[in-house]
Write a structure and sequence with these properties.
InterPro entries: 2'-dNMP_N-hydrolase, Nucleoside_deoxyribTrfase. By secondary structure, the chain is α/β, with parallel strands linked by helices. It contains 6 helices and 5 strands; from the N terminus they run βαβαβαβααβα.
Length: 183
């Protein structure tokens, strides 16, 4: 079974090593890990064309995979990496099973409040950020569409027991363990 390994690891200085570690864990549990940087891209003279080529090739990798596991740890904000979320949505639209994990067990609404601050003038019974915009209060781990998509696809959303480094492999490995038990 081929698993596309979505997540912000591609931005890390040691991205290739992180991808290799994840692929090794996949192999240990009887799966084939596909890392976004597995693509062999010849950069174009245009950064725009190179970026679009990478996008097309990663979509092809997702299409060729059986399922997706995504690192949904907060990245550059209160929520998961936007590119990773796009990849989950694409996989869900293709009818693939999607799974996620986060190395931050804090609820989305609490992370939003920490990042954005509460509104000085809360609406009656509604939690709002400093700009007066409503904050989702569903006790979910990320935006309701992320948690909802994973649940609807029959996937697992595993949380670290306590906050861990963004690229920790513990929660990722727990998803693999659960998959190997159901395979």
């Amino acid at each position: 079974m081929k698993i596309y390994l979505a997540g912000p690891e591609v931005f890390a200085p040691d991205a290739i090593e992180l991808g290799a570690r994840k692929k090794s864990l996949c192999q240990h549990y009887g799966f084939e890990g596909i890392f976004p940087l597995d693509n062999e891209i010849t950069p174009s003279s245009s950064p725009v064309e190179t970026g679009l080529l990478i996008s097309r090739e990663n979509e092809r990798l997702i299409d060729d995979s059986d399922l997706v596991i995504a690192n949904l740890s907060p990245f550059r904000g209160a929520s998961a990496d936007v590119g990773t979320v796009y990849e989950l949505g694409l996989a869900r639209g293709l009818g693939k099973t999607i799974h996620g994990y986060s190395n931050d067990p804090e609820l989305y609404q609490d992370r939003l409040l920490s990042l954005c601050g509460p509104s000085a003038s809360q609406q009656a019974g509604t939690l709002c950020d400093r700009d007066g915009l409503k904050i989702e209060e569903f006790d979910l781990h990320d935006n309701l569409m992320i948690d909802g998509g994973i649940a609807a696809a029959g996937g697992h959303f595993v949380l670290a027991q306590k906050k861990a480094a963004i690229f920790s492999m513990t929660a990722f490995e727990e998803v693999l363990i659960r998959l190997s038990r159901s395979a």
